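Consider the following assembly input.
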Amino acid sequence: MSTAAATTGRPRRRNWRSALEGYACISPWLFGFFTLTLGPFLASFYMSFTEWPLLASPRWIGLYNYQRLLFIDKKFGISMFNTTYYTVFSVPLGLVLAFFLAILLNQKVHGMPLFRTLFYVPSVTSGVATAILWAALFDARFGLINSALAAIGIKGPIWFGSRIWSKPALIFMSLWYVGGEVVIFLAGLQGIAQHLYEAAEVDGAGSWARLRHITVPMMTPTIFFNLVMGILGSFQVFTNAFVMTNGGPADSTLFVMLYLYRNAFSYFQMGYASAMAWIFFLVLLVFTGVQLATSRRWVYYEEPAGGA
Amino acid sequence: MIGQRVSRRLVLQVAAFGGLGLALAACGATPAPTTAAATPVAAPTDTPAPIQPTATATAATAAPGVAGSTKSKITYGTFAEASQLEGMTKITNRFAEVNPQFEVEIQEKPWGQYWEALEVQVAGGAPPDVSWITPNYAYHFFKTGHLVDVTDLIQKDQINVSDYVGEIMEAKFEGRYYGMPYGNGVMVWIYNKDLFDEAGVSYPTQDWGWDEFRDAAKKLTKEENGQKVRWGLDMGGWWENYAAIPLGNGICEFTGGVFTDKGGYFDTSKPIKAAVNDPKFVQAMTWIEENICREGITPKSGEVTLAPGIETAFDGKVVGIAPSGSWEIAAHRKVQFNWDLCLVPKCPKTGQRRTTTYALPHAILKGCKNLDGAWAFIKWHAQQEAQEMLAVSGVKDPMLKTALDKLSGTPEHFKDMLMEHYLNYNWNMSTMVFDGQPEAEAEISSKLDYIWTCERKYADLAPELEQSVNAILEQKTG
Amino acid sequence: MDASTPLPRSAPIVWWANKWSIQRYAARTAIYLVLILGAAFFSVPLLWMVTTSLKAPWAISLRPPQIIPDPVQWRNYSDIWRMLPFGIFLRNTIYITAANLILTVLSCTLVGYGFARLDFPGRGLWFVVLLATMMLPYQVTMIPVFMIFRKLNWVNTYKPLIVPAAFGSAFFIFLLRQFFMTIPRDLDDAATVDGCGRVSMLWRIHVHLIKPALAAMVVFSFIDNWNNFMGPLIYLNETKKMTLAVGLNLFRGQNYTQTHYLMAASTFTLAPVLVVFFLAQKYFIQGITLTGIKG
């Protein structure tokens, strides 16, 4: 396990010191975890077994919230479906686009810092500020998108007035926000040793081969990061639905976070919302766990006994 | 030994920035004293000349004033929008002037997240003393005991409830009062005179009914190159409030509903049940549905894609007639076309007209450490001087009937029409009076989307809707 | 070898070199084309924000939408300063952001290194816990956390917004851990042989090797804190303590939104972010030439 132990042949003392150093390093996070995170987590877990009208005391009701969520409440099922649908499409599309953009933006070309900034801008503009932009772009009659479609002979739908097209519209909007992933990919690209490329070129490898055999494998740690965070972020989609569609039309953009928010602050059912949060948490935990476990197979770290 | 050196260094590092963090935070706790917030400068709007304090300024209910010594503080939570802040601050400053033993700290938060923040503060034990309360949230605060009962104070100070539009119904729960009136708003109908002229339609008169509205709207609807560019009648962004309720009331034979005895979705005779399948309600909704789907004079949901709460079809010249709030009049005044208020059609049987009001009272939150101050505050804001200042400022319409005359900045006949709305029309107050209303309304709203997109007919949907809404109501009250 | 040098066309090798230059030129043009198209696509939100911030209020809802504001209302920008104390908001935001930045960089580097490089029992478990802390929606922990801070009497101060940064952020810890793990172990062994302790190794060697990731973290942390809305909303009550992100939302009202002012305030708030991003790039992106050689 520890290479240090393997090389020195004095395992016990080394492990003890290594353990101490390790815990010392992560102690800031551990302290924060025990003081600010663990307590509230446990509190919300307890709340999920209560009926808590937020402004009054909670009342224990056992598993009723969970029963309601899993077997009775149709809207929860709808919200999970909507969220999954959104994630399944926006994450892969976003990753591929971000990767492609990162390579594009890594070229040494005049004015590149300006280009990079322009590509990054959307991801820092707030959802509220851009709501009118999206309304104008997706306008059924005058918006750019339907005009572009009309130019190639397709009659565009009423995007935010249709149960079928509202999610695709939001997925398309999500592509504007890949700037963050691009930055991380760019950082990752910096770390690829140049001599690898030079050696490959000497061997006669073309651009495509270099991409496949050097860039992508060396980028797997950052790809893994963006994949995990992409799924986490995508599952928590909220702002655009909250500002633009309010879950409509006909609950087609009712995402889990939106439904949770409503239950907590509009319906004053914080207990129910907590139960929802914990189911959501478990789903994400399982997803992420699977990703972590399978990551050993494809993520390449420069370590002999690598991996999580 | 190296190991030991490293460990100590490590410990020092960890301690160092822990300390750094606390030090920075300590500095942050006391920012350099600044001059108070927004010194009101006359913004380039249409606010009129300074107010003359009226002679009937009420005597402040001052505790034996120890003027000049430490003032007792009142924290005041509000979701006033930036342009309203100036007007509001003027009123609050005047209160502090008249009651020098009190000092007011305004805690303003943006409307979109006001309730989230307030709920966290209340649940977390650190609420403001006084807050703006919208009726639909007030109920829950009342139910969980977070509003202070001021009925006895009202009686003691001999405040006459009928001086106010609505008789403080917006703050009345189970027979007792939990707030004092402050501001109000009412739903009005407006029309675009230029578009009427272009289509050659004469302006709406006092005698118009819904059929005349529909005919006019048909003439106003216009197409260009196969694309609809204009609709005659808009139902507004808030379909439920605007569409069903006044319309149902306009047809005027539908009564019963959540809003005490006015029209709506619900039947108030206990236990609460949905009235969405009541024949008269179905008739009202079908009329709207026909406008959208059969006649094409009202846009389908999303057909004019607008950012909700931000853009309006009327200002964009996309519709000829639309409902609007009296608070939006200031915004509409900036448009570049001619427009006017028109009256809601009257009830054929009774001759009355009906609309909806949106009251905004002040309430004292439990946990308030300065009850005297808070009561003095909310009482003063409901009295003549404050209400007149409110009317003039345009922040909200006043609640005090005798202050209505001071509604300013409007063409004279607007003021008259608004006064008539408040004094002579019947209206619903958007008030929440039972548990489960938000969920039930959300269910209705999402199902109504099928109607606004013309996917289904209301007559078919009504029975299903009745069932699902009743299921929600049973679950909540059962 | 560049395209302007005249070359004899007599030898096959020379011909190949010439062709390769043209190829490079074509590739460069193609890249520019894609960049310009892409930049146009991605800068639409920014353009829209800026043009809307210069519109008169009644022009905002027009359909078809007005692309170039007419009239151009520059005074929107001066109006917003008159209506709300943006100078104070700016100062507060800078303070909170700077404090968070320092603490975040220090703590996340240390903790990320611990997870990446140091072997301690339970490391895998704690890492999963770390990731798990990002999975529970904040709405359900907001109130218990608020209660903790209220007990400490930290409500209406900056402390709840700054002190947690000293404990690291899961996102950045995860990020840096990934990057630390790309550094070859041999380096560690070599340093150990030279008498360097594991932790001083971190600050003397490792951080320099992951500079791009550190720079990315600085940029992200700056932006997160600059735009942070929920924290200031809940913990700061007085106007004089408010930040830009909360302040600009005051242009959204219960019944209507002053969009032109909202956009002007948003543009004003966004500008420093873009400047920081633009300037920070040279610290972490060097770019490669078309041949793959770092410039």
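Chain B has a mean pLDDT of 75. Ask yourself how this observation constrains the way the partners meet.
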